[in-house]
Amino acid sequence: MATLNDGVVPTFGPELPAMFDGMKLAAVATILYVIVRCLNLKSPTAPPEISYKDSLLNHYLLKACPMLTKEYIPPLLWGKSGHLQTALYGKMGRVNTPTPCGVRKFLPMQDGATASFDLFEALGEHSTGDDVTMVICPGIGNHSETNYIRTFVDHSQRQGYRCAVLNHLGALPNMELTSPRMFTYGCTWEFAAMVTHIKRTFPDTLLAVVGFSLGGNIVCKFLGENRSNQERVLCCVSVCQGYSALRAQETFFQWDQCRRLYNFVLADNMKKLILSHRSSLLSLNSSNISDADLSRLYSATSLMQIDDSIMRQFHGYESLKEYYEKESCVHCIHKVTVPLLLVNSSDDPLIHQSLLSIPRTLSEKMPNVIFALTQHGGHLGFFEGDVLFPQPLTWMDKVIIEYADAICHWERNRPDCQSTTGVTLSG
């Protein structure tokens, strides 16, 4: 047998290079398989799944709102991944974000808090010729300067809507708290103050109510709390809310769809926001927050721990269960009688599938409710595009305006005695 000492170099048979080529192909195939699975590339596009009870209004809306019945087509390479849609929304908000010009308003509250909202006038006349104001409640920790809000406001202005955007208490940078509390999951006080101000300032305007994520819970709870809150309201649209915090809390500790990881990230962001107001929360006389509560906050790794140590105390709830029960819209959303569009996405990593039985059941019982469930879109993503680059406007932005426009035309063409708002449209 030849050895290296004999000066003979060993050679490999022709089967070894072929084996290495096969291993390379297998590795490439594995990587491609993982990419296809992670990006959900094999998932077909489809129209939203629509749940509703037969009524003249709903049949009209499904004809007047083609976006609810035609395919929602996300960007081909990444748009079918709910995680990437959610991540892009979370990191960028939107692409080519406009900068609408508005005026900031401040409203003193009875407990010493100072609510604020931004008012943006319409950039043209509405298609009906009427005065309509979008009253908008953003998602958790968001405000009028958040990118997805700016994009939606700009689009609404161009379609003839005045916009009023609530800045969640404590969410605006460089705005100090004037009372020892911040926004919570379902407190409607600041939103109610904004709506009251709009109604008083513009006595002829009608309202289209819009809520995103946590804001969707707040607006539905606001409308259902008191029948008078629905006066002069044309319609309401809620996007990507979870409906019941009590039922949602259990799902946030599960690892499917990486929900436990999202819980940690959201908790970290919320922790930073609360700690930025540490001095105000501790120094104001009527504060329920102690140093011990803030110490527990430092070690919190979930939203539930933050809610238990800090958030529930803003309104004096005795337990976390009581806080979640009292602040969720699930107990009063059935009292909303104005046209109501509820939008969720099947691949939203924050909203567990079990929670979607709430809007589905409601829409099957209430003649004023439509529940639209898209196959893709993530959490407040809903980006549209061809292959790679998303469009500045999302499916979500367009469908809200389409629905609100349809309601405005429905109200204008109905006899006064059948108006859902109880207000006669001008003209």
Kindly describe this structure.
The protein is built from 14 helices and nine strands. The protein has a nine-stranded mixed β-sheet with strand order 1-9-8-7-6-4-5-3-2, with helices on both faces. It starts with 14 loop residues before the first helix and ends in a 14-residue tail after the last helix. Helix 6 (214-225) links the parallel strand 6 (206-212) and strand 7 (233-239). The mean pLDDT is 90. The longest helix is centred in the first third of the chain and has 24 residues, at 15-38. The protein is an alpha/beta fold and 427 residues long. Helix 2 (56-64) crosses helix 14.
Task: Please give a handful of descriptors for the protein shown.
single chain, 427 residues, alpha/beta, nine-stranded mixed sheet, globular
Instruction: Give the mean pLDDT.
Output: 90
Q: Provide the low-confidence segments as ranges.
A: none
Largest sheet geometry? 9 strands, mixed
What is the N-to-C order of secondary-structure elements (H for helix, E for strand)?
HEHHEEEHEHEHEHHHHHHEHEH
Instruction: Name the shape in a single word.
Output: globular
How far from one another are the termini? 104 Å
Q: Using only CA atoms, what is the Rg?
A: 25 Å
Number of helices: 14
Residue share in helix? 25-40%
Percent in strands: 5-15%
Number of strands: 9
In short:
This protein has 14 helices and nine strands.
How is the topology of this model organized?
Elements: H1 15-38, E1 49-52, H2 56-64, H3 82-91, E2 103-108, E3 114-120, E4 132-137, H4 147-158, E5 162-167, H5 189-201, E6 206-212, H6 214-225, E7 233-239, H7 245-251, H8 259-275, H9 278-283, H10 291-299, H11 303-309, H12 320-327, E8 340-345, H13 357-365, E9 369-374, H14 395-413
Parallel strand pairs: 4-5, 4-6, 6-7, 7-8, 8-9
Antiparallel strand pairs: 1-9, 2-3, 3-5
